[in-house]
Amino acid sequence: MLRVQLEHDFKGFALRAAFDAPQGVTALFGRSGSGKTTVVNAVAGLLAPDRGRIELEGTVLLDSARGESLPVHRRRIGYVFQDARLFPHLTVRQNLLYGRWMRGLGRGGGDLDRVVALLGLEGLLTRRPAALSGGEKSRVAIGRALLSAPRMLLMDEPLSALDPARKMEILPYLERLRDEGGVPILYVSHSVSEIARLATTVVVMEAGRVMATGPAATVLSDPAAAPALGLREAGALIPATVAAHEADGLTRLDTSAGPVWLPRVEAAVGTALRFRIAAQDVIIARDRPTGLSALNILPARIVTLRQGDGPGVMVQLRAGGDLLLARITRRSAEALALTEGMEVHAVIKSLAVAQRDVGLG
Fold first, then answer.
1. 219 pLDDT band (50/70/90 cuts)?
2. Sign of the C-alpha dihedral, residues 120, 124, 128, 132?
């Protein structure tokens, strides 16, 4: 568990952030300038905040009230930056082992083999960074941080410099790192798709403040968090299991509310997944509709309705054991006479869920 309480003043900007980051991937989400990088730099020891306390697994990294601040090299935190920052004159193997050498940990042995297998680096060990793609460089940088035996990884927008194809290439490795790496991760991003794929906990920041924090599925489906997430990006995170791959190219997923069909998902039957449904892609019907091209019609109950400043309404729905989010117009909400507690149906087009929004559970 990482516990963070920070206060720091810049000219024209005040950071006031407090949150807990449990095991798994805790995503710091927010627009540029919201304070995300300031937080991770304080955790790493690269920034001395005006006031604060940071504790990691019972070890106090910072307590400004007592005048305590653990030096950077004693915090045992791995930091993966936006750019890979590899040494161009060293091979991939040498870059991987650099952090271990700096900490006096020896050659790596089984640890090196495990990290190489985890990140799919087997065929790259003799290459130099100039011969690597952007995604490969990012994987090497992550491996180097892991091999320094950190108690925590900090990842500051590690995919921001990659094109969409390279991002799709590296996301499965980050999912494996989350599930098999055994190291908690504080992950900075301003991409809702990334945090929906990777995060177990989400901390939403805006203008230096924490606007929402909690399990990823809870925060992403919270109407109150939608403005900070971005109305066009707001949506829900649904756990599912691959039930069947069908002859017409669709995959049937079992969810707590019923079956959902998506374009073919490259995962074996029985695999646990999660997928994101954007709020703007969910239609609400009072009665179960017929004669529609949409395949996914889930019974649901309205939990909350949240009116914004404009013509839109955010509707939080409970479908089975999961929460959905729908963004509709105020006119539609009034025409349907929607109220909290009402039984309705959520209609979702199969093609509305992009491949980038489907990840391992």
1. very high
2. negative
